[in-house]
Amino acid sequence: MYTDPAQQNLASMLTLITANFTHFNAIHMIMNLGGLVLFTNMFNPRASELALVLTASTIVIAIGVYVTQLTHFMGLSAVLHATVTYFAIKYIFMEQKEYWIILFGVLVKVAHESVFGVTSQSKWLMGGEVQTQAHLIAVFAVSLAVAATQVIKVIDRPASLKRA
């Protein structure tokens, strides 16, 4: 298809990005879109913040899937995992402690999937193999990014106090 390795790499990355918006079947798509609507209503983010989180997580997941050479990846669920993790951590830092339950639930779900895989019923419902590695990449990347921003805030805090 492509003879130039650079073109082949670009095509692979574009395929991985668009895979986040491709689904195995209608049930798979409806469940993911339903999750997006549910969590968007629960977290009630600004449109610009939601767009940024969705875009950044799509790109980071595509890079993670590409680097780990995961095959047959499709669906919005990894982006949903990243979005829920991001907003749960954000609200935890805003001292809304009930969001620990949501974060704990996401972490337990991803850990369970990573150790035991998914049930045959889930595979049947989705119409294909559920790529739990993408969920793990999403949660890890968001947790790392949020932790880094919090460390930067702590490091920068004394400097900002000196300016006042």
N to C succession of SSEs: HHHHHHH
Q: What is the strand content? A: under 5%
Largest sheet, strands/sense/barrel: none
- Given the structure, what is the number of helices? 7
Q: Give the mean pLDDT.
A: 79
Beta strand count: 0
Rg for CA atoms: 18 Å
Descriptive account of the structure:
The structure is a single chain. With 164 residues, the chain is an all-alpha fold. The protein contains seven helices and no strands. The protein has helices at residues 5-19, 26-43, 47-67, 77-93, 99-116, 120-126, 132-163. Helix 3 (47-67) packs across helix 4 (77-93) and helix 5 packs antiparallel against helix 7 (132-163). The model has no long low-confidence stretch (mean pLDDT 79).
Topology, please?
Layout: H1 5-19, H2 26-43, H3 47-67, H4 77-93, H5 99-116, H6 120-126, H7 132-163
Descriptors:
164 residues; mainly alpha; globular
Brief overview, please?
This protein is 78% helix and 0% strand.
